[in-house]
Amino acid sequence: MILPDGYSDVPAGKIAAVVTHLEMTTPPSRRDDPPGAWTLRKVDAPALAWYRDLYRRVGEDWLWCSRALMSDTELAAVIHAASIEVYALVADGRDEGLLELDFRQPGQCELVYFGVTANLIGTGAARFLMNRALERAWSGDVQRVWVHTCTFDHPSAVAFYQRSGFIPFRRQIEVADDPRIDGTVPRDAAKHVPVIE
After folding, report:
1. Phi, psi dihedral angles at 87 (to 5 degrees)
2. Is pLDDT of 30 > 90?
3. Which of 33, 20, 19, 21 is nearest to 134 (CA)?
């Protein structure tokens, strides 16, 4: 369905975001790492409690909620799959960034989740994490790397991905239940997106 020009009402209790899909079909020029003492740690068969905690700390203010809504069985089936790779960005001995790569589709890699905790935004940690993400994504037989972001994410997300070498190729509108109403995420999360009941 194509939305008509003009305004379209979003029902109370729902949220709506503009989703931008971006891709690259050749490895980009490598960008220098910013100064910082971060490391990347691969997490094989992540413990569900660990994953949920880091997912929440990185994504709560951007209304990441799809993994929070999964049962333990559903979540384990995804993050323990053979073609899924999960990494933690480590800062001062703590896991402060999440990178999840999906190689399930032959010849492609999706950056499913990418982000750092609030205290690392603006420090260069995300640039370090993206450099590692692209190294890993392009290390195998891959012809396409892609990611999507939305208007709930950091306001510089699209520009950051474009600086990293991604090119926008699709835009969608996503409508979903507001996860703050049912308590999936705290009521005071994502202050840039008002709750309308």
Report:
1. -130, 150
2. no
3. 33
- The arithmetic mean of pLDDT across residues 108-123, rounded, is 97
Angle at 66 between CA 166 and CA 25, to 5 degrees: 20
pTM value > 0.90: yes
Dist. CA 74–CA 77, nearest whole Å: 5
- Name the residue with tokens 């740690």: 41
Burial of 30 (0-12, 13-18, 19+ CB in 10 A): exposed
| pLDDT for the residue numbered 156 | 95
Could you tell me how far CA 150 lies from the centroid of its own chain?
A: 10
Packed helices 72-79 and 48-59: angle between N→C axes, nearest 10 degrees: 90
CA-to-CA distance for 59 and 53, rounded, in angstroms?
Answer: 10
On the 0-12 / 13-18 / 19+ scale of CB atoms within 10 A, 59 is buried
The pLDDT mean for the chain works out to 96
- Give the per-residue SS3 of the chain: CCCCCCCCCCCCCEEEEEEEEEEECCCCCCCCCCCCCCEEEECCCCCHHHHHHHHHHHHHHHCCCCCCCCCHHHHHHHHCCCCEEEEEEEECCEEEEEEEEECCCCCEEEEEEEEECHHHCCCCHHHHHHHHHHHHHCCCCCCEEEEEEECCCCCCHHHHHHHCCCEEEEEEEEEEECCCCCCCCCCCCCCCCCCCC
Q: What's the distance, CA 116 to chain centroid?
A: 9
